[in-house]
Amino acid sequence: MELSYNTRKFMNYDKAIDFLYSLERFGIQFGLEKITYLLSLLNDPQDTFKSIHIAGTNGKGSTSSFIASVLKESGLKTGLYTSPHLVDFRERIQINGVLIPRKKLTEIVEKLIPLVRKTNNKLGDLTYFEVSTAIAFEYFKEEKVDFACIEVGMGGRLDATNVITPLVSIITSIGFDHTKELGNTLGKIAFEKAGIIKKNVPLVCGVTEKEPLNVIRKICKKKNSKIYLLSKDFVGAGLARLSGRQVPALKKGIRVPISQKFSYKGIYENSTDYDISLLGEYQIQNASMALAVIEILGRDSEIGAITINLNDIRKGLKNAKWPGRFEIVCRAPTIIIDGAHNPPGASVLAKSLRRYFPDKKINFILGILKDKDISGIVKELMPLADKIIVTSPHCDRASSLDEQAKIVRKYHKDVEAVYPIRKAIKRMVGLIRRLQGVVQKNEIICITGSLYTVGEARKALCKN
After folding, report:
1. Helices (H), 124-209
2. Residues 396, 27: contact at Cβ < 8 Å?
3. Which residues contact 65 (CB under 8 A, 6 or more apart)?
4. 3-class secondary structure, 71
5. How many angstroms separate the CA atoms of 446 and 463, rounded?
6. In the Cβ-directed half-sphere of 177, how many Cα atoms lie within 13 Å?
7. pLDDT for 221-268, tens place per residue?
8. Domains plus CATH for the chain?
9. pTM over 0.85
10. N- to C-terminal Cα distance for the chain?
């Protein structure tokens, strides 16, 4: 449904969402001119709160969530803007862990419609992401947040979020993804992501590869921005030490990890142990980058140091939630959903599966988008695979079942294609039960390949 700009008084939540989704037809358009003009019509809401800006190929959302959770526990009213969402658009825009209310979202969309029309007439059509970013900034302004953690949508230099001047910037990782838009070398991708670095604003960096790190260092030097490097200036030490419990639903039990502990040696602090509920060894790196940011906020007098005590940090890290990333959503059988949608993401997923479930059979349900490196993702996961089902999320970017199955069969002969996702899940559970008689403790189902796939799977599984 395409919404007329002249129906403001008839606006309700469903029409507001329809309006936003109607903007998807304009695709991805890089550049700051339109978003800057639109925000100027709103009196620049992005300048009314302190912010932290997060870019990177993988790990942006988790790192943002860790920081926002710690700031919230410290008594600071904290906004969080991320993308994409899994089930509900409102997941993208939160304050203190609470999604933007439907009524408030509708009111802001209503306010924006004539401003969007004015911008479109002057500069060309605004995109879905640009308008979503404006909604987030206006909401944070109206609610008078103290801080906002702002995740880059894609790249950084020309991303719509790059109109803020943060207290700290973060680049979590550099890997091959969105190569058509960002470039086909790690150096080119790093240049785009490093576009978020602002003059005299410190950067926390999780990049370790030489080529992209050299690019980032040069830009930091040019901008007089101090850089703090993971594994050099701060370290999340050692492998995760898992905390778990016996699951009563399984007769013979399976030890399912429900949190992980790690030691952090910081920029200023000595080694300290922390506990996080997000699983996956890569979350230790993300939590470490969050801790580095918290240290800088607490110690750097140049940016106006804030007081954050150790108990608040511990509580914030432990309470941080980030659905769809190595998330255990079912325990009989054990079903894990993970939004790995590029080869680096698939690689760390495979590493975590090996680490946490070394003696288990891993059964994959894969749903990968057609504009992604399907072969690269599959190549990382197939050495672990027992049974495989390919499926597709309900979106225009989904690849065909035949295309996915053809690629997977290069690495694994036994592949089924099932659509939609809920039927793929039912089929995989049925395969396990038929072959085993009962759900055995050595069977794991992992649903991955896309956040769209994970969102549909999570909705189906949590509903049941």
Report:
1. 128-142, 179-182, 186-193
2. no
3. 80, 82, 149, 278, 320, 321, 322
4. helix
5. 18
6. 21
7. 999 999 999 999 999 975 555 555 433 333 344 455 578 899 999 998
8. 8-234+276-319 (3.40.1190.10), 327-463 (3.90.190.20)
9. yes
10. 30
